[in-house]
Amino acid sequence: MNIRYIYMLLIILWGGFVMMTNNNGNTKLNTMQKATFAGGCFWCIEAAFQELPGVIDAVNGYTGGTTKNPTYEEVSLEKTGHLEAVEITYDPSKISYKELLDHFWKHIDPTDQEGQFTDKGSQYKTAIFYHNQEQKKIAQDSKTQLEQSKTFDKPIATQVLPAAEFYKAEEYHQDYFKKSAERYEQYKKGSGRKERLQRLWGNTKEYTKPSQEELRKQLTPLQYLVTQEEGTEPAFKNEYVDNKKEGIYVDIVSGEPLFSSKDKYYSGTGWPSFTKPIDQSAIIEKKEEKPLGRTEVRSKKADSHLGHVFTDGPQPTGLRYCINSAALRFVPKEKLIEEGYPTYTYHFEKKKK
């Protein structure tokens, strides 16, 4: 049992809280909270959370089943109904439950209904076990947001369930990624977890928009006119109006994925036209003032002007996203992984079936 775990137990026995003094000399209650996640092999989920700022401890165990005090062998034989899970004790003043959830999603394949990566079986299924109604709402909202983002071609299989009795796993499972580092790395590599997560989630770093001075250097005069000054490029005489290759179109400023070749069609208007965005959450639609009263389309991250959306498009959406080529950069399907968009390679592969 490590020193940090002993320290955590002392805190819980003392009352589940510590007293912190603010700048005015007053004291406030800082209550430690729990979060429980099942994400396949608990060694990997524990490792993902153990060093996260604000996490006091992460403990491997079993939950969601019917047998009391289950052993690893019983759970592995799928006789108890338990899932391998990690119970996290965290300081909500340093990290929020939503931040923990976001971290959890990025370390699992939420579409796998049979387990995780090479580990298949009911004990390896994914789930979020909420400890109170607030966690339940945050978890359900987070799952709904992920579903609506249409990041994946398959349904989200991760369940949101009430927390059940949690049984700590055998001691040799605790901190396995530290105590048996070489074997852990061999297992992790053999499971294909790292590669699969990269294909699913890609690069998730936050984006900071450059200054206008930097953008003038980064963009061509036409690209700057369109994206920063809401200009319009010439009809028919633009780069992507006749492009028929498979791939995705990203924001020329931020690189954010915006549209897919699978939703592109020839509208005869002279500009690239799409029936829908590749991810609705990546764009913002703004109603312009009359007399035109059109609906402008902008990218969410970089706030780039892209074009407009009209209601004269084909089914199934009936929409026409009329977008300036100068606001876009095309990434061919065969270069998606190379250029940092592995999620959409998977998207294209699945659509072929």
Please tag this protein with its features:
353 residues, alpha+beta, Peptide Methionine Sulfoxide Reductase, Chain A, Metal Binding Protein, Guanine Nucleotide Exchange Factor, Chain A, six-stranded mixed β-sheet, six-stranded antiparallel β-sheet, 11 helices, disordered N terminus
Assign the structural class, choosing from mainly alpha, mainly beta, alpha/beta, alpha+beta, or little secondary structure.
alpha+beta
Strand order of the largest sheet: 9-8-3-5-4-10
Count of helix runs: 11
Rg (CA only): 25 Å
Multimer state = single chain
Poorly predicted segments: 3-29
CATH class of the largest domain: Alpha Beta
Number of strands: 19
Question: Per DSSP, what share of the residues sits in E-state strands of 2 or more residues?
Answer: 15-25%
Mean of pLDDT: 86
SSE ordering: HEEEHEHEHEEEHEEHHHHHEEEEEEEEEH
According to CATH, the fold-level topology of the largest domain is Peptide Methionine Sulfoxide Reductase, Chain A
Full CATH superfamily name of the largest domain: Peptide methionine sulphoxide reductase MsrA
Main pleated-sheet profile: 6 strands, mixed
Shape: elongated
Estimate percent helicity. Answer: 25-40%
Describe the structure.
It is a single chain. The chain is an alpha+beta fold and about 350 residues long. It has 2 domains: about 5-200, 2-Layer Sandwich (Peptide Methionine Sulfoxide Reductase, Chain A); about 210-350, Metal Binding Protein, Guanine Nucleotide Exchange Factor, Chain A (Beta Complex). About 30% of the residues lie in helices and about 25% in strands. The protein contains 11 helices and 19 strands. The protein has helices at about 5-15, 40-50, 70-75, 95-105, 135-150, 175-180, 180-190, 195-200, 210-220, 220-230, 340-350, and strands at about 15-20, 25-30, 35-40, 55-65, 85-90, 115, 120, 125-130, 160, 165-170, 245-250, 255-260, 265, 275, 285, 295-300, 305-310, 320-325, 330. The protein has a 6-stranded mixed beta sheet with strand order 9-8-3-5-4-10. Helix 8 (about 195-200) crosses helix 11. The termini are far apart. Residues about 5-30 have low confidence and may be disordered.
